[in-house]
Design brief:
alpha/beta; TIM Barrel; 9-stranded parallel beta sheet; 9 helices; globular; glycosidase; hydrolase
Amino acid sequence: MMSAILLVVLALFQQPRALPPEPAKAAWIENAFRVLESGRFSEVAAVSWWHENFDRSALRIDSSWGALRAYRNGVSSPGFVTRPRILGGKLAPPEEGIYHAAFADLGGTEDQVDARRIHDFETLAGKPMAWVYFSNNWYADIRFPINEVALINNMGKLPFIRMMPRSNFHEGGPDPVYTLQGIIDGAFDDELVQWGRDAAATGIPLLVEFGTEMNGDWFPWNGRYNGGAETGGYGDPGLADGPERFRDAYRHIIELCDAQGADNITWFFHVDAYGAPEADWNQPRNYYPGDQYIDWLGVSVYGPQEAGEEYQEFEEILGDVYPVLRSLADKPIAVLEFAVTELESRHRLPISPNW
């Protein structure tokens, strides 16, 4: 009898046990920091996490203990630095390492800048930020964010301003007010000139981008809503009108700011890693204003933002877009947005209403 019981017990122990779900968010974060420090992408000189939960996305670094631990461990490396190096009024890459920064959950409209939110993120991360990333929405008018810039500067960080030419937060269509053609034609010059004057008057280094992720059709400044692949409605007949309008609108804004003496601005060109639509005319090279205008290249590198989306490692996504960026210009590269939601495994998952 005893031998029979022993055999049963041994059989039970030999049965394969179900493993707990792999913490894919934590693993994704670990992969990201490991790859960044590996030197494989040597021109990447800055990273900025998108710290926000919205709809069905849990992107905050404290969405789970595993994610928070992975993030804190990653940025604890001395290879991630927080003191900006300024040369000639512009941000230069660090002599060693990679800048650490973030969008610190500044509200649904991305512009609710306050000291508590900034402090909360840095406490969670266990590391300060080199800059604070926020949106300058053109809802009612075009106005330089004086108060937000002053607050960030007083906290000892660089203000990073996303110029967002939108009159509302709607995605997936043209904006009824702020068209690229209108910017080119000077319809908003008075406001933009004042914006440039106010920027110059701060006397501090500013980081600025216009038209975030312009190769993504979720934003109204994407080429799809501004002429698309057509070539006969604007400018050079050999170029797609949509991207060409973006390029010229961005050039116009930089020229207006330069004319106001705003040489304290470091200008970024910020693309999405993949973009949409997937068409040759929508490639980043067609939007690029030129080396004489742009100081840094930027990119968004997101893993799945909702359960059910295809899983890709940070390394794979950055590996796909890195050659595209290097072919654009010999400029330092910033991963201006990176994040991933909480997932149960590395594999594609069904969306459940109970999550």
